[in-house]
């Protein structure tokens, strides 16, 4: 059986978990210890989560894991079979993670972990984030799902990343920059949470909020 390592407060962990639940793929959750979340460096060389333990070996990086799951379990499909549509879905996910999530992640120390960041640093991040959110809005469809009229792997990413971006910017800047960019993420999240798999992810995340998680490093490919 597949073993998914991580913790339910990690947006990237929940991205993979949501995909597995949507596909009905049996898997075991292996919650890492909270104190600095030490992990097996043989499975995840940078010590990041999530990572997936399979009968063939381990995989790290959430998008690599999603691609593997889709290839092994193509039904129900979370990626269109048409190459162009599949690329557009992947474009939305990649843009969201590289240009929005990784950008806003820079303010997580102040938003969520009691840190204080320099004003010039915060101003620079805000400027970048405003620009990146406007560009993301140009790509995203929300019709009603983030990449079109069907739930997809892109929603597994958008569902876990957009609320964090909105909350972090609200805490640090006093304004939800996601909403300010014209992205109604709260309505979108309500739509996704009509799905039993998303309800399970949300319930587990809420239950895990009592676990004290040390500040994750920002280096690497985005997963924490």
Report on the architecture of this protein.
The protein is of the alpha+beta class. The protein has 2 domains: 2-72, 3-Layer(aba) Sandwich (Glutaredoxin); 83-208, Glutathione S-transferase Yfyf (Class Pi), Chain A, domain 2, CATH 1.20.1050.10. The chain has helices spanning 11-23, 62-72, 83-104, 108-112, 119-139, 153-173, 177-180, 185-192, 196-208; strands at residues 2-6, 27-31, 51-54, 57-60. It has a 4-stranded mixed β-sheet, with helices on one face. Strand 1 (2-6), helix 1 and strand 2 (27-31) form a beta-alpha-beta unit. Helix 1 runs antiparallel to helix 6. The longest helix is centred in the middle third of the chain and has 22 residues, at 83-104. The two termini are 23 Å apart. Mean pLDDT is 92; it is low at 213-222.
